[in-house]
Amino acid sequence: MMEALSLVPVPTEAEALRADVRAFLDETLRDMPPERRAQSWLGFDATFSKALAQRGWIGLALPQAYGGGGKDAFARFVLVEELLSRGAPVSAHWIAERQSAQMILRYGTEAQKRFYVPRVCSGDAFFCIGMSEPQSGSDLASIKTRATPTASGWRLKGQKVWTTNAHRSHFMIALVRTSGTTDDRHHGLSQVVVDLSLPGVTVRPIEDLTGERHFSEVFFDDVELAHDALVGQEGAGWEQVTAELAYERSGPERLYSSIVLFDTWLEHLRHVKADDDISLALAGRIVAQLVTLRSMALSVTAKVAAGESPMVDASLVKDLGTELEQFIPLALGDAIASATERDAPPALLRTLAYVTQIAPTYSLRGGTREILRGVIARGLGLR
Amino acid sequence: MNNLLTQSFDRLLANCSTPEVVRQVERGETHGPLWARIHESGYLDALVPESAGGAGLSLADAFPLFVAEGRHALPVPLAHTMLVRAVLASAGIEPPAGALAIASQVRVEHDGAVSCPATPYGRVADWVVVGMPESWLLLPTAGAAMRNTGIHGSLRADLRWPAHSHQTLVAHGAIAWREAGAAIAAAQLAGAMERALGMTVAYANERIQFGRSIGKFQAIQHQLSVMAEHVFAAHMAAELGCSGRGPLPHGLRAAVAKARASEAATITTSIAHAVHGAIGCTAEVDLQIYTRRIHEWRADFGSEQHWSRVLGRALLASDAESTLAFMRADLIPLLEEIQ
User: Fold this and answer.
1) How many other C-beta atoms can be found within 10 angstroms of the C-beta atom of residue A227?
2) Domain end: A88, A107, A125, which one?
3) How many domains does chain A contain in total?
4) Inter-chain contact B335–A370, Cβ cutoff 8 Å?
5) Interface residue of A292, A323, A373 to substitute, partner B, most B CBs within 10 Å
6) Residue A26 covered by a domain
7) C-alpha–C-alpha distance, residues A310 and A285, integer Å
8) Cα-Cα-Cα-Cα dihedral sign, residues B301, B303, B309, B311
9) Do A284 and B309 count as a contact with CB atoms less than 8 A apart?
C-alpha cells in the first residue's frame, strides 16, 4: 500500500524569492487582459521570456555551471507558482526549461550540455517535444518515425503531430525508432535533438478550437542529422522518456491552469457584493481543493528534491489537479449563467469561453487521465 | 512527533479496538474495559502541556493519532477527550474523569435547557462539551435525558439537559469547538478511508470473475485509482486542518480539512461498496464498520457544503489580491507550524 503524502513547508530561502517575482509580475502583467493571461502555459511571448531570463528566472534550479541559477526545487516551486497563478505567458521557454534542459543534463554529453543548456537559460533556445504521431497517441511505443544510421550521423524520416510550439521553437527532442520495428515495442527507440531550421523539416501549425495556433504537425523528409543529434543512449529512448514524464507530472504545474478565470470571477463577485449560498459554497469548494492540491504538489516536489522518483504520487496529483482545472470552467459557467440578475463583464465571459474550450487539453498533455490511472493502479498493486 | 509513538499507538488500537470489540460496543455491551485500556495507556493527556503534567504534544503531533483512531474505528472518543483535556488544563480546570465528547450541534431552549441532537459518541461519553457564544459548558451525560437516535449501530445520542443542571462546569471565553470537532473528524475520515481503500484493493485482488481477479479489469483499476486520489487528498487536507502548535485548530484550515475530507467521503464509500459487491453490504464483512462511520463523520460538525460556504465567505471578504495570496495568508501553515 502506498503511503500518504505529508505536509512539508517551503524553506525560508525559497520563500525569499517571492516578493521580487510578484513585483516583476505586477509591472509586466498590468495591462494584460484576463482572457490573455488565461492562456498561461500556452501564452507565447518571447520578449517576456527574455525578460525573465535576464533576471535569472529561467533555469533557476539548473546548475550554475551551465548557466542556471543553482537554486533548489523549492525555489523553482515558488517561482513557478507565482508565474502560473498570475497567468504569466511562459510558453516560449516553458518546455525547454522544464523538460528539455533537464533531459539533456541527465543524459547528454558534456558538449551537448554546454551547447544547449546555457541557451535555454538565457531565453535564446526554445524547445518542443516530438512524441505523438498520427497513429501513436497514448500507445507511444508504436511510433514509426525513424532515424537511420548514415556515415555522417542519422537520416530522419517520418512525422510528428500535436507538437506544442513546434512552429515557434528552435529545437525538437524527438522520440524516434533507431532499430528494429514497431513489433519491438519499447526496444529500439532513441531520443534525438533536431534543429528545426534544417532542410527537410516542414512545420505546419494547426489551428485549435479557440482560434489560436499552439500545436503543429511536423514532417521530416530525409533530414540529415549529425552523430551528436543522439541524446543519451541509442535504444534507451523509452526509459529516458519515462523519466522525463516524471518531471512533467510533478511540481505546481497541474493546479493553476484555470486560476485566472477563478480570480476574475471572484473579482466580479466582490464587485457586485454577491453573498448567495451557491456562489459562496462553490468558491469555498474550489479553494479547499486547490490548497490541498498545492500541498500535495509541494510534497511531491520535496520527494523529487530528495532524489526520489515519485511516479505514482505525481500521477495522482496530476490527475486530481487536472480534474479541478477542468471543473472550474464548467462549474463557473453554470454559476455565471444561473445568476441572470447579475451582468457578467465581457472580459469574464471571454475568459470563461477560452478556458472552457481549451480545458479538455489539460488532461491530455503529458499523459492522459486513463494512462495516469493505470500508473496509480500499478502503484496500488493491482497490475 | 516521532514515528515510534504513532506506531505504538497504532499497535495499541489494533489490539484493543478490533472489529469484534467495535461491534460489541455498537450493540450496547460495555465499553468499560476498552476505555480502561485507553486510560492506562497514558494518551489522554498527550495534548496537555508538560507544565500541567501532560506530554505537551501539539495538534500537528497528534494528527497521526487521530488518523489511527479512524483507521481502527475506535468506538470511544479518545481524540475528543485528548483535545478537551488540553483546553481544560490551559484554563486551569481539573478535568473530570471519563470520556469527553464534543457536541456537534447545540440548541439552547427558551427556558435555558440545552439540547444537543446527534452528539458524536453520545452513547459512550461521560461528559459533553457544549460551545456557547461567550462561554462553554461541560455537561455530564448522566444528567441528560438521553434518546437513542434509532440509527443502527450508531454511537451518537440525542441529549438534553434541563435548565440549571447541578453538575455543569462553566468556562468563560468562546472556544470554536465546532472547528475543533471538524478538524478531528477530518483526520478520522482520512484514517477510515485509508482503511476502506486497503480493504477494497485487497478484495479486488482476491475476487475472481471471468477467470481472473477483478483488480485486473481496467474499469475496476480506474475506480480504485480515483478512490486513492481522494483518500490522499483527504489525508493532506486533514493534516492542514491539524497543523499548529496549540491544541486547537486554525479555523479556516479546519474548514479546508472538513470540506475536502467530507467531499472525499461520498466518493470513496461509493467506490468501496461498488467494488465489493453485495458482500460488502453484509454485517459480517468489516467494510461497513468503516463506511457507516465515514458517512457519520462526513456529517458531524458540518458537511462539505457547510465548510465550503465558510471558506467562500472568507475568500470573498478577503482583500488578498489573488487566490494564491489568500491561501498563503490564511490557509497555508507557516514553517514553524509544521516542523
Assistant:
1) 11
2) A125
3) 3
4) no
5) A292
6) yes
7) 27
8) positive
9) yes
Confidence category of residue B339, pLDDT binned at 50, 70, 90: low
- Same structural domain for residues A166 and A140? yes
CB-CB under 8 Å, A284 with B335: no
DSSP calls for A78-114: HHHHHHHHHT---HHHHHIIIIIHHHHHHHS-HHHHH
Percentage of chain B beyond pLDDT 90 is 91
Which residues of chain B have a CB within 8 Å of the CB of A293?
233
Asked if residue A222 and residue A302 are part of one domain, the reply reads no
B226, B229, B316 member nearest A266 (Cβ): B316
Task: pLDDT band for B171, please (50, 70, 90 cuts).
Answer: confident
If asked whether residues A160 and A269 sit together in one domain, one would say: no
- Same domain? For A374 and A322 the reply is yes
Show residues of chain A in contact with B313, CB under 8 Å: 275, 280, 284
Q: What pLDDT score does A29 carry?
A: 96
Contact A291 B331 (CB under 8 A): yes
CB atoms within 10 A of CB A157: 17
When CB atoms are compared, the residue of A5, A282, A294 closest to B327 is: A294
ipTM summary value: 0.96
Closest CA to A125 of A104, A97, A160, A98: A97
Question: B314: distance to nearest CA of chain A, Å?
Answer: 8
Domain end among A215, A236, A257:
A236
Give me the mean pLDDT over the B124-130 stretch.
97
Answer whether B233 sits within 8 Å of A6, measured CB to CB.
no
Query: Taking the model in full, what pTM does it have?
Result: 0.95
**CATH for A225:** 2.40.110.10
CB contact under 8 A, B260 and A281: no
Please tell me the distance from the alpha carbon of residue A190 to that of residue A110, in angstroms, as a whole number: 18
Q: What is the torsion angle, in degrees rounded to the nearest 10, for the CA atoms of residue A376, residue A258, residue B258 and residue B42?
A: 60
Domains and their CATH numbers in chain B: 98-175 (2.40.110), 177-338 (1.20.140.10)
Work out the minimum CA distance from B87 to partner chain A, whole angstroms.
25
- Residues in chain B with CB shorter than 8 Å from the CB of A2 are 228
| DSSP label of B203 | H
Span A113-164, pLDDT tens digits = 999 999 999 999 999 999 999 999 889 899 999 999 999 999 999 999 999 9
Q: Which of B201, B220, B236 sits opposite A5 (nearest CB)?
A: B236
Cα maximum dimension of chain A: 72
Name residues of chain A where pLDDT drops below 50: none
Q: Cβ contacts (< 8 Å) between B323 and chain A: which residues?
A: 85, 259, 262-263, 266, 287, 290
- Angstrom CA distances, B269 to A1, A266, B274, stand at 18, 33, 8
B82: CB partners within 8 A, 6+ apart: B43, B44, B45, B46, B47, B62, B65
The alpha carbon of residue B265 is apart from the nearest alpha carbon of chain A, in Å, by: 14
Q: What is the pLDDT of residue B166?
A: 67
Residues 6+ apart with CB under 8 A from A363: A319, A322, A323, A326, A369
CB atoms within 10 A of CB A252: 25
Residue span of the structural domain in which A175 resides: 128-236
Residue B315 to residue A377, Cβ atoms within 8 A: no
Residues A106 and A203 in one domain: no
Residues in B closer than 8 angstroms to A4, CB to CB, are 190, 194, 231-232, 235-236
> A43: domain CATH number?
1.10.540.10
Q: Please list every residue in chain A whose beta carbon sits closer than 8 Å to the beta carbon of residue B256.
A: 287-288, 291-292
Mind telling me how many Å the CA of B146 is from chain A's nearest CA?
34
